[in-house]
Write a structure and sequence with these properties.
The protein is an alpha/beta fold. It is built from eight helices and 13 strands. The strands form two sheets. A seven-stranded mixed sheet has the order 7-8-9-10-11-12-13, with helices on one face. It has a six-stranded mixed sheet with strand order 1-2-3-4-5-6.
């Protein structure tokens, strides 16, 4: 059974662990290495690999230290080039080309963000469970049949952002950047309507904005839409 643990989820840093009971992966490395060590009980040898979506600091901060500690880093060639990590501890991923890490399969797919070659990941285990991980993207161009777990960014609401701009709490120029780099509540709802939710067991909302989101409202609206348990990743 897939288990998800959030270590951090915000613009200050992002990191999560996912395990199926046999293989444990780290998704993102955007916090200090020491904090990752503490979170896994200093059992770094149990981490089979670390998937990094893109090269921005809040997703890659501990990448070099993880590689030095013997953890294999998996990312696109564009991301690895930006990270400049030792080649002997990295594996380049190609969108739509599946790899196997222990008992988990990983299918990378392209996403839309202001980075070199960002990726999302579809993880599968031998029990047939499927976990979708996508963050820092304003659009997900694919449909995913048979999903059982969803971890997707829900960074902001258009309505809250517009209100903040009107009140002067957020610069108007920020809206264009958000619309071309991060997933909104409205886009998340469109994604849900476009995908088969029948097997989904739980939905985790990632990377909520401090200013432009509302945890309680997001959770309520998405529970009403999906009928599924909604979890807000700890910030």
């Amino acid at each position: 059974m897939i288990e998800i643990k959030t270590l951090a989820s915000s613009s200050a840093g992002n990191a999560y662990t996912v395990t199926d009971g046999n293989t444990t992966l780290l998704l993102e490395a955007g916090i200090h290495f020491r904090d990752i060590q503490r979170a896994v009980g200093f059992r770094m040898s149990q981490i089979a690999g670390c998937l990094i979506s893109h090269e921005h600091g809040d997703h890659r901060k501990a990448a070099a230290d993880l590689a030095k500690a013997g953890v294999e880093i998996y990312a696109s060639q564009g991301t690895l080039g930006a990270l400049q990590l030792p080649r002997h501890r990295t594996t380049a991923l190609t969108a739509k080309k599946q790899v196997v890490i222990g008992s988990l399969t990983v299918l990378p797919f392209d996403v839309r963000h202001d980075a070199e070659e960002p990726l999302g990941f579809l993880l599968g285990n031998q029990a047939g469970e499927k976990l979708l991980f996508a963050t820092d993207t304003y659009y997900i161009p694919y449909r995913f049949p048979g999903l059982t777990h969803i971890m997707v960014e829900c960074n902001y609401s258009e309505a809250i952002l517009d209100s903040n701009i009107i009140d002067g709490r957020v610069p108007a120029i920020q809206k264009k950047r958000l619309q071309r780099s991060h997933f909104s509540l409205e886009n998340f709802k469109d994604f849900i309507r476009a995908n088969d939710m029948s097997k989904v067991q739980e939905i985790h909302l990632l990377h909520l904005s401090d200013r432009n989101s509302d945890e309680a409202a997001f959770k309520r609206e998405l529970q009403e839409l999906t009928g599924k348990p909604i979890y807000i990743a700890e910030r």
